[in-house]
Amino acid sequence: MTPIEQIFDILQAKGGADYGSERVTQLQHALQSAALAEAAGAPSALVAAALLHDFGHMIHDLGRNPAARGLDDRHEVRGRDWLGQWFAEDVTGPVRLHVDAKRYLCAVDPGYFGTLSPASVRSLELQGGPFPADLAKSFIGLPHAAAAVELRRWDDCAKESGRPTPDLPHFRRHLEASLRPA
Ligand code: FE
Questions:
Q1: Which of 15, 17, 74, 148 registers the highest number of CB atoms within 10 A of its CB?
Q2: How far is the CA of 138 from the centre of ligand 1 (A)?
Q3: What is the pLDDT along the chain (182 residues), one digit of tens a residue?
Q4: Dihedral of alpha carbons 65, 87, 127, 113, sign
Q5: What DSSP designation does 170 have?
Q6: What total of structural domains would you count in the chain?
Q7: Which CATH number is 104's domain given?
Q8: Which residue range is the domain that position 115 belongs to?
Q9: What's the whole-model pTM score?
Q10: Cα-to-centroid distance, 53 and ligand 1 (Å)
């Protein structure tokens, strides 16, 4: 099986599950995120990152909705590690940093916290809460942090029940373009 077939298999097998307490499934959330990235003209690696940013939720065995039980599944690290088998840092960097990007935006954008869904507010607590000013400053200096902040904005807008998107195969070309040369 090719890497992309494996990824599509997992998204199709596990992506039908709820996305925590959000109103969309994991797969709908992934597709909406990727569609927003594509519509914004993001490079293929960032469209791929948008599609796969929550992949870490689909490859653990902590059971359904660990956040509801007070558990942080560290999905951004799981996702980065797993995807790092095939993708370079232009994909895995934004995936790794999309949780910290939420902590960053809470620190620097006064209106941001109020836009978060209840599930996202709950996970923010488990993830350490808003960054203090010094951590926000060092975060945004990291490689791929700016891309992670862009991804975060699409992520937060990708929770709308019933919004039509292209299907999974539509995004294959972005994944193919982003694979690390063997
Ligand atoms: Fe997400």
A1: 148
A2: 23
A3: 999 999 999 999 999 877 777 889 999 999 999 999 999 999 999 999 999 999 999 999 888 889 889 888 999 999 999 999 999 999 999 999 999 999 999 999 999 999 999 999 999 999 999 999 999 999 999 999 999 999 999 999 999 999 999 999 999 999 999 999 87
A4: negative
A5: G
A6: 1
A7: 1.10.3210.10
A8: 3-178
A9: 0.95
A10: 6
